[in-house]
Amino acid sequence: MAKRKLTVLAVCGSGVVSSSMIAQKVEDMLSSLGVDVEVIGLLPTSVESYVDRGGIDFVVTTSPIPGDIAVPVIKGVALLTGFGEDAVIEEIKKTAQEILAED
Amino acid sequence: MADVILSEDLVELGITETEKEAAIKVLADKMMAKGLVKDGYYENVVKREEVFPTGLPTVIPVALCHTEAKYVNQSAMAVGTLTQPVAFHEMGAPERDIRAEIIFLLALKDPKDQISYLKEMVTVFKSKEILEAIRDATDKKALIALLKEFF
């Protein structure tokens, strides 16, 4: 399913530490599906306006995000703990595939 | 990758504090004593923990405390084990608490340069064997040797 590149926001309280941990996972799992992906780390409070500017396909977060987010938001803490990780991986893959199928 | 200091004098085994603030302080004081962090580091780690909690419901629960790079002189990690589990709010679900048995206190000067380090931390979080070995460690030198296999 090599189509256009997906752009994903990885969100955590610092915008860097746990988001970098999940970003790496998201890149690895989507790359293994042949999906080209760019992951951008961001703070929760910046997400709404960033998504509203367009170009973001979905969000994976370890923090609650304020506001009304116009794209799918996936809770990613399980990617750090391993518990419930398979369900999150499935959700990310499914979300990516649905987005690409719509194009 | 930029170096992250990890040494015996940044380890405390068997912290007896029962409140997370006091437990974090034991480790933050070690960072401060080595000049790795700046004034305000501890206060901001605690403040940040309230807003963006870092308790992880791993197989052995841990906390991954940290704060902004501006309070950091040199990248380092302190590790503490707790005599009794200490309540931390859960990352991503602040209404819940986890009972941490290990605290990892990070001071990262430029986390974007340390992504492979952060990635290795996830390997540690997911391994029951490694977390048990950290929790049950009785010798700082042996613990550092174990951690250095990953970092």
Observed structural traits:
heterodimer, A: 103 residues, alpha/beta, four-stranded parallel β-sheet, 4 helices, 18% strand, B: 151 residues, five-stranded mixed β-sheet, 5 helices, 5 strands, 27% strand
Alpha carbon gap, first and last residue of chain A: 11 Å
Range of strand content of chain A: 15-25%
Radius of gyration of chain B: 14 Å
Sheet with the most strands of chain A? 4 strands, parallel
Query: On the 0-100 scale, what is the average pLDDT of chain B?
Result: 94
Shape of chain A: globular
Biggest sheet of chain B, open or closed, and with what strands and sense? 5 strands, mixed
Say how many strands of chain A there are.
Answer: 4
Treating each run of at least 4 consecutive H or I residues as one helix, how many helices of chain B? 5
What oligomeric arrangement do these chains adopt?
heterodimer
Give a written overview of the molecule:
The complex is a heterodimer of chains A (103) and B (151). Chain A is α/β, with parallel strands linked by helices. Chain A contains four helices and four strands, in the order E-H-E-H-E-E-H-H. Chain A has a four-stranded parallel beta sheet, with helices on one face. Chain A is globular, with a radius of gyration of 12 Å. The mean pLDDT of chain A is 93. Chain B has 151 residues and is α/β, with parallel strands linked by helices. Chain B is 36% helix and 27% strand. A five-stranded mixed beta sheet of chain B has the order 1-4-5-3-2, sandwiched between helices. The interface between A and B is medium-sized, with 24 and 29 residues.
Short description:
The complex is a heterodimer of chains A (103) and B (151). Chain A is an alpha/beta fold and 103 residues long.
Topology:
The complex is a heterodimer of chains A (103) and B (151).
Chain A: E1 6-11, H1 17-31, E2 37-42, H2 47-52, E3 58-61, E4 73-75, H3 78-81, H4 85-102
Parallel strand pairs in A: 1-2, 1-3, 3-4
Chain B: E1 11-15, H1 20-33, H2 41-51, E2 55-56, E3 62-65, E4 76-90, E5 93-107, H3 115-126, H4 128-135, H5 140-148
Parallel strand pairs in B: 1-4, 3-5
Antiparallel strand pairs in B: 2-3, 4-5
Helix pairs in contact in B: 1-2
